[in-house]
Every structure is written in C-alpha cells, then in structure tokens.
Amino acid sequence: MINILPRSQGNVIGFETVGTISMEDENKAIAVCDKLIAEHGKINVLVVLGSLKYASLKVMYTDMMWALRHLRQMERIAVVGDSPWEKLLDKADSLIFGEKYFDKSQLEEAWRYVEGA
After folding, report:
1. 45 CB-near residues (< 8 Å, 6+ apart)
2. What is the pLDDT of residues 15-68, one digit of tens each?
3. Which of 23, 81, 113, 114 has the most CB atoms lying inside 10 A of its own CB?
4. Are strands 100-103 and 74-81 parallel, antiparallel or unpaired?
5. What is the dihedral of CA 41, 44, 49, 54, to 10 degrees?
C-alpha cells in the first residue's frame, strides 16, 4: 500500500510505503504525481520506506519507468529509511534519480529538504 502523508501540500508530496505495493497502489500514486506536475510543472517527493516490496516485477518496472520519464519534473527527492540495505540501494538510485537519503530519525530534516526550507 502507498499512503499519502498529511503534510503534503502544493508541489510537495509525501508517500509512505506499507506492506506490498500493488499495481493499483502504483497507479494511484502516479495519478497524484501527474496531477501535481500538471498544476505546478515540477514536484518535490518524499518517500518513507515502511517496506519496499512490489507485488510483481511489472509494478516495479512501472514505478521505475515513470520516474525515469519524469526526472525533469522532480526537483528534490528524499527517501527516508532505516536499514543498511535501503541506504546502499539509495546510493545506486541517487546516481540516476538524484535523490537524497535520510534515516528515519531525520524525517523532519527530509521534509525541510523537499519543502525547500
């Protein structure tokens, strides 16, 4: 499941992943981001990793392809996690997506980063 975090506003969207991410979850998140891009031109995204388990390779592929196609519309991306493998995975992702990793204890700092504060 993907939940939209209540602090989201304007061109800043926060998501939290919980359990397994289905294609329906992915499509809803994509629709929200597409709407914000249409309204604001560029968005800032925060993702809190509660889990990172996709229901299928197709869901993961859809997620990655959307992100690749919209790199120019994403100014700041913050990923918030709490495990060493998430931090390692983020180092690889940051080469492509330019995201910044924060430990869960740094959640407030991550929000400030995507909010441009």
Report:
1. 12, 13, 14, 15, 33, 74, 76, 77, 78, 114
2. 999 999 999 999 999 999 999 999 999 999 999 988 778 899 999 999 989 998
3. 114
4. parallel
5. 20
